[in-house]
Amino acid sequence: MGLVYSLPLCFSQRSIALPMNETVDAVVIGTGAGGAPLLARLAKAGLRVVALEAGKHWNPKQDFATDEKEQEKLFWTDERLSAGNDALAFGSNNSGIGVGGSTLHYTAYTPRAQPTDLRIRTDFGVGEDWPLDFATDIDPYYDEVEQFLGVSGPSPYPWGPPRKKAYALGPLPINGAGQLMERGCKTVGIKTSPAANAALSAGYYQEGVGFRHACTNRGFCQAGCSVGAKASMDVTYLPLAVHYGAEIRSECFVTQLVQDASGKISEVIYVKNGQEERIRCKNVFLCAGTVETPRLLLMNGLANDSGQVGRNIMAHTALQIWGEFDEDVRPYKGIPGALISEDTHRPKNADFVGGYLLQSIGAMPLTYITQMARKRGIWGQELKRAAAAYNHVAGINILGDCLPYERNFLELSDEKDRRGLPKPRIHFSNGESEERMTAHADKIMRDIWDAAGAKNVWSFPRNAHVIGTCRMGHDADTSVVNADGRSHDIPNLYISDNSTFPSALSVNPALTIMALALRTADKFLANT
Amino acid sequence: MNYTAITLLETDLVTDPTRNVLIARLNAPARQPAFFLPDEFTLLEAVCDRLVPQQAAERIDMAGQIDKRLTEGEGDGWRYDDMPPDAEAYRLGLRGITESAEVMFGNSFQNLPDVQQDKVLADIQSMVAPGETWKQLPADRFFEELMADAAGAYYSHPLAQAEINYVGMADGSGWERIGLNELEEREK
To answer: Which residues pair with A398 in a beta bridge?
Structure first.
């Protein structure tokens, strides 16, 4: 079976020369899950919008190889300094670059948050509530994003409140790791389901693009989809934005936001090909992610009357359990996150705050082996034997909530990176709640894997996704933006990425980031 | 097996972008060090050979890959805050290995028998190896970075992929059989 591409996967970018001194309606900084849907919404409303992206504009079919080392080009490799008891890994762990941002390498696992995820403070007396109502502010946008992207999932969905719409596409096929998790969970009495994934289980018409091809089970979501089946922004919201007249400038690294006499941002300065360029604008939407968004604000001394910029960093608990099985697993095939259970969303008698989901995981070989080399402590012949078992390996992991703590924050260091800009230093240590949650999950996952027949089980402690450095809230003293993503301090500055999340949620952030991006755009349009 | 990671590169079961990258890597000659001094480089080669042993007639040039990365100043996007930048970490780390070998066994690391080399490395990993250098550089962190670099260089190479019977790069037509014990012809 050969692959047939109905339409080019790389949308062409008309080259538009801005007249001198033109002021655009909005500059959008970053083209990931936070920037892309917003860009499309603003463009459709007729605004003159320009997006600035630090990375390159790839043509996946030509540029993407099935080789993890080659695909390291999708990761943010400007160095971050990582501190704390549970120092976070960056780069391929959580940070992308390029037109499409981190969605170029996301796993496309797109569970919805549940309403209780927004009420941590109310339910547990610690952490924060969201200044949003799930039913009116988020739910309708979940519907819209899922239908637009072509999320493939089970209907009815077994957990959470009832949905207005079924998923447009049925779930993707289950790979070996998913089958093993099904088997193990059945034995221990945990309900599982095929997961919702933002990858197409069948060909799908994409507005602004044409027909996108169904997933071919490459299992390479985390190193770049070459087929267009995964819903990264470059094959979904960004072509839509360009269709409505948005302009995307790639390889433009934003360094400064310039204020006018009134305190509004009037100009954005960026570096392209080593040269500084400037663009005048009426509004700025900062969508550069939980590390780069606050970094830009701190470098420019902006929007931080609250003192909260860079603070309240959270990172999901994400312990992985790996094992070897008698069966031929061939973990490189199929959507990596085939299966889910949300039975552990609010476990009875939990001694921790919030909860977590369970996920089956496929693994590309280099990622698996280098993580093992780092964290399993084995080397020499022991490592070689374990690496040679790769075709029989499967993993299961959690994704769980995380509280904000005083000691977890981002600051600018004194060390300069290769752009001459201060490297961010991120301090992170799990708290007692996260450690108890991890211990709870460790036992359950080992039981599941044991029941599934795993041998040589080892655990990889990990935290996934960084969240919360410019949190939203009603109170300008304790938050950076309001519930609509607008800065409390600078009236024409908005943030749209997961730096605004006041709690981490117990699900992967991408779907919620996109939903809020649309909401932020709608609120902006309604108020201007 | 019907195919290996090497023989697959000659077929259309692999896409062109994938083929080009892997053939270039397979055919790349052993690198003359540009970052490491000759003694440092031979030491690093000896260390890598213990961390990821190889017996094949064709060697995978782990030390060369590390040298290339450090020469070009490329990184993976982060480092532990309590570690110096990569270049300094490697210089210090190699000095520390030399020092520990000298104190523990009275010889250079390269001249020690395998079992003693492994003891030096194990003690560094557990943070009990002797040496003033380890007061300037966290031994366990350095060991972890070294492991990640060595294993990364090794297992990204088509020879290593053939060694572990990995054929995932042959996805030119995608995969249809993806469940347990479900293999396509090219995976058998």
So the answer is: A358
Considering only CB atoms, which chain B residues are within 8 Å of A367? none
* Alpha-carbon distance B50 to nearest alpha carbon in chain A (angstroms): 6
Helix (H, G, I), strand (E, B) or coil at A258: strand
Task: Please tell me what DSSP assigns to residue A89.
Answer: P
Number of residues assigned to chain B = 188
| B-contacting residues in A 228-267 (Cβ below 8 Å) | none
What distance in Å separates the CA atoms of residue B53 and residue B42, rounded to the nearest whole number? Answer: 15
Distance CA A489, CA A264 (A): 9
Confidence of residue B1 (pLDDT cuts 50, 70, 90): confident
CB within 8 A of A119, min separation 6: which ones? Answer: A129, A130
Which structure tokens are listed for A169? 């596409």
- What's the pLDDT score for residue B58? 84
Tokens, residue A204:
């799908």
Q: Does B107 touch chain A (CB under 8 A)?
A: no
Hey, are the CB atoms on A219 and B50 less than 8 Å from each other?
Answer: no
- Cβ neighbours of A180 in B, within 8 Å: 180
Across chain A, what does the average pLDDT equal? 95
Is residue A174 pLDDT above 80, yes or no? yes
Q: Report helix, strand or coil for A177.
A: helix
Neighbours of A218 (CB within 10 A): 26
pLDDT tens per residue, range B41-90:
999 999 999 999 998 788 999 999 999 999 999 999 999 999 999 999 99
A456 touches A389 (CB < 8 A): yes
- What gap in Å lies between CA A378 and CA A526, rounded to an integer? 58
pLDDT of residue A41: 98
In A, which residues are within 8 Å of B18 by CB distance?
A: 65-67
Pinpoint the alpha helices (H) of A339-431.
Answer: 365-375, 381-388
What pLDDT score was predicted for residue A3? 37
Classify each residue of B75-110 as buried b or exposed e, where b means 16 or more C-beta atoms within 10 Å of its C-beta: bbbbbbbebbebeebbbbbbbbbbbbbeebbeeebe
Angle at alpha carbon of residue A204, lines to A202 and A207, rounded to 5°? 165
Q: Each residue of A181-238: pLDDT tens digit?
A: 999 999 999 999 999 999 999 999 988 889 999 999 999 999 999 999 999 999 999 9
Selecting from A63, A77, A377 the residue whose C-beta is nearest the C-beta of B77 gives A77
d(CA B30, nearest CA chain A) in Å: 18
Contact B156 A366 (CB under 8 A): yes
Q: Distance (Å) from the C-alpha of residue B181 to the closest C-alpha of chain A?
A: 5
Kindly tell me if the per-residue pLDDT of A377 is higher than 80.
yes
Does the structure show a pLDDT above 80 at A439?
Answer: yes
The full DSSP string for B34-67 is SSS-HHHHHHHHHHHHHHS---SSSPP-HHHHHH
Residues 3-32 of A with CB under 8 A from B: 3
CB contact B176 to A (< 8 Å)? yes
Say whether A176 and B178 touch across the interface (CB within 8 A). yes
Task: Answer whether A87 sits within 8 Å of B80, measured CB to CB.
Answer: yes
pLDDT at residue A9 in the model = 43
Give yes or no for A366 touching B (CB within 8 A).
Answer: yes
Confidence of residue A121 (pLDDT cuts 50, 70, 90): very high
Interface A-B: count of C-beta contacts within 8 A: 179
Report the residue from B25, B81, B163 with minimal CB separation from A81: B81
Give the mean model confidence (pLDDT) for residues A149-158. 98
